[in-house]
Write a structure and sequence with these properties.
The complex is a heterodimer.
Chain A (H helix, E strand, L loop, with lengths): L4 H11 L4 E4 L9 H11 L5 E4 L14 E4 L5 H8 L7 H13 L5 E2 L10 E4 L21 E2 L2 E5 L6 E5 L2 E5 L2 E5 L4 H11 L4 E6 L4 H6 L10 H9 L4 E5 L3 E7 L4 E12 L5 E2 L5 E2 L6 E11 L4 E3 L13 H14 L3 E5 L8 E6 L6 H10 L6 E6 L7 H11 L2 H4 E9 L12 E9 L15 H6 L8 H4 L12
Parallel strand pairs in A: 1-2, 3-18, 4-12, 20-21, 21-23
Antiparallel strand pairs in A: 2-3, 5-17, 6-9, 7-8, 7-11, 9-10, 10-17, 11-14, 12-13, 14-17, 15-16, 19-20, 22-23
Helix pairs in contact in A: 4-7, 4-8, 8-9
Chain B lengths: L4 E4 L6 E4 L10 E2 L6 E2 L7 E2 L1
The chains are: A alpha+beta, B mainly beta.
Chain lengths: 482, 48
Amino acid sequence: MPKSLRTFLEECQREIPNEVVHVTKEVDPAQYDVTAVIKHLGAMKKFPILIFDRPRNLHGRVSSEFKLVMNCEISQRKTQIALGVPREMNRTQMAEVCLEREEHRIPPVIVDKKSAPVKEVVKKGPEVDLYELPIMRHHYMDGGPYIVLSTITRDRKSGIYNCSYHRMEVKSKNKTALYASPRHLWKIFRDHEDNNLECPVATVLGHHPAYHMGACYSGPFEVSEFDIIGGYLQEPLRLTPSETWGEDLLIPADAEIVIEGALIPGKRIVEGPFGEAPGYLGPQRYTTCVHYEVRAINYRRGGMYQSVITPEGDKPWMDLPREGAYLRRCREAIPGVTAVCKMGRHAHYNVFISMKKMSEGDPGRAAAAALTFDHTKNVFVFDDDIDVYNPTDILWALATRVQPHQQVSVLQPLFRGNFLDPSLVDEIKTSGMIIDATRPLDRPFSPVSKCPDDAMERIKLEDYIPGEILQHIPIDRTTYWC
Amino acid sequence: MGQAVEVSCPKCRKIFVVNPHMLGSGMDFHCPFCDLYFPEKDSPKIRK
């Protein structure tokens, strides 16, 4: 059976049944009910998959056609299930799996509409009504209800498909304002607009987490994300013709819900504010906010609508592919790089690298490689004994291995920054910083104090404190940062 | 100039943030609280 959100949920129900939770009480996603539930759970460090069985739609009525599903991409275990990798695998190994999947791409296959579950129900023309979906308002001061999952466009000349994430504010039953940051989708749209053409577009509102992860791919324009997604799924992505554009724009056949339509040339719409991944409200804007006219909605019976919000603390795991991209770039510069961490609300701008340093200057080269990618602003480089996913280790290394006048380099505002960075004082350019928190090679440095390895190996805790006593000792969450 | 300008809605008086490029653009602002679209000149207070 082809992979879909449903096959993923079934697998989670088997493997991690305690982490699949049905919420049967009625919720109103447009009144922040869902956000509040997720934030309360996040404060308890709990991130189960949530299936809201009775969400209200934007008309305020309990939707009989759709459920709302959240948190499929959050947690290491769920991501392991999505990627089909063993539970023993750590995050760096999983990032390496992402790199391998991106290198071993699998092209999609096309199926006819009769074989496409997403075509079980199709609404076109006057029947199109986005308000029938349980679309969320995510944060205080958001401009309206927002759709936040990935959008499909296709280059007019090469036919290459692009899947990328662009928030869109729902403006009416068949219109959204899509905020196009200046990446591949913007390039494709502008090419259509320069020729006064509508740009075919579709947005996938529910699918297997590996689909969403593959759509996070950040690489050359010439690479079709559908091939990358096939690599992540480990099987060809099944595609089917859209209603609006036929075979000129294919959509995922096993998606839960797909909206499709056109980006209209020559029109800009006010959009925002919107609470963004860095943890701040992205201000209202219009210059790159495009009119997305929705002309058809395709969905499976019992369709499951998905959304994501930035949880407290770490980012969703679906950003793991980007971490793999960092790992690749840094290792191309310095093969001794052991891990790259891009987690957390700081994740757009702070990058933490660990390495086996062979030469002075290696940290600078690895940092320079990271600075070429995405919106990196501050790069911190550590030795490989530092766990770059652990803030305690990071803060300790910064405190004890850095003399700022020698090891902190402040970079001039030469780099294209990110519009969502509230600290920008220039319109788009950002400065940066490299902190080399590695130990020097050219002089002695005090060894880390620890218990000898052979003593740790020799002493078995259960020989001194029986298991029945040990299990009742509470975990102390006050002694470390995390 | 920072990236956020505070704009006050003429109807509900609540404050929301807009990008500086909205100022002088001729585009109406949209209040996220009361759904009002209004021109820049109608805002009782704009803070840069």
